[in-house]
Amino acid sequence: MNDLKRHKGPAIVALGGGHGLSAILRGLKLYTDDLTAIVTVADDGGGSGVLREDLGMPPPGDIRSCMEALADTESLMQQLLAYRFPDGRLAGQAFGNLLLAALDGISDSFDQAVARMSQVLAITGRILPVTNSNVQLEAVFDNGSSVRGESKIFAAKKEQNCRIHHVRLLPEHAPALPDALEAIRRAEVILLGPGSLYTSVIPNLLVDGISEAIIDSTALKIYVCNIMTQDGETEGMTARDHVAALLEHGGAELVDLCLCNSDPVGPELLERYSAEDAAPMAVDSQQFEGMKLDVVYYPLLDQECGYARHSGMKVAQAVMELYEQRAVTKEYS
């Protein structure tokens, strides 16, 4: 993809967190420079959770992963950001998290620290925390019980042995970053997912103003559906169930398209995931009747990574094709 085509690319906003968001950013950056990642800050586990507890800062881990995906740096710098200390009190901590924590210490706000680190790494596009507020995620289960803390949801769900009814942010009404709202307003394509439904994607929708801005936008709004269900979060849920959860948390007109994988998952992967109580996402277009959205299928599986994960390049190609199809339809409508 040459630079000329990149500069002509559409304004794309991708909301989420975790591996799913960083994976698709690697593909999308080849098609446009006008790319904004809006990242959840509800994580409280691992190295991010330690820094959050010790320093009172938002969790840096998901943002660091997005920076690695969008950085235009030498491979040595990318290795440095991802390096995790093997021993001692820093065991498991990523150097990139510490660098972002240091920048947060000398900046007026967390989003300013993210912007400064983005300049250092010369990233393509922008990375924005969805809010600067110190929020926690609470899950409420179908039986009425609840648990506070993103990192505790997996174990609590397994113990309760029932579905998540809904999640919410505490404190409520965390204000969205103004730049995030502006990015959504000017977007031509808005992507939700892929990623953990209740702990990576939906938390962004719970920040004040985000869902409303997405619904009001004239952009093409695509939910990139997960390839597999997730143990401790979405066991037994179908693609329709995923979309229904999004709409229940964010609003009825949140999504135009549900983008689903059509690549088969190999038997060895299926066996491995089955042992983890995960299965291929069940997709039945007829189940979406009554929802004001379309279901589309593309081959999206990364055949090289050894996991049932999205290929960032395949997702980007599918998104661009869908965007161009819509542009043609609008032109001749």
Any overview of this molecule?
With 333 residues, this protein is α/β, with parallel strands linked by helices. It folds into three domains: 1-40 and 178-333, 3-Layer(aba) Sandwich (Rossmann fold); 46-117, no CATH class; 136-170, no CATH class. It contains 14 helices and ten strands. The protein has helices spanning 3-7, 18-28, 46-55, 61-70, 75-82, 95-105, 110-121, 153-160, 178-185, 197-205, 210-216, 239-250, 267-275, 312-332; strands at 12-16, 35-39, 126-129, 136-141, 146-148, 164-170, 189-192, 220-224, 257-261, 294-298. The protein starts with a helix and ends with a helix.
In short:
With 333 residues, the protein is an alpha/beta fold. The chain has helices at residues 3-7, 18-28, 46-55, 61-70, 75-82, 95-105, 110-121, 153-160, 178-185, 197-205, 210-216, 239-250, 267-275, 312-332; strands spanning 12-16, 35-39, 126-129, 136-141, 146-148, 164-170, 189-192, 220-224, 257-261, 294-298. The chain folds into three domains: 1-40 and 178-333, 3-Layer(aba) Sandwich (Rossmann fold); 46-117, no CATH class; 136-170, no CATH class.
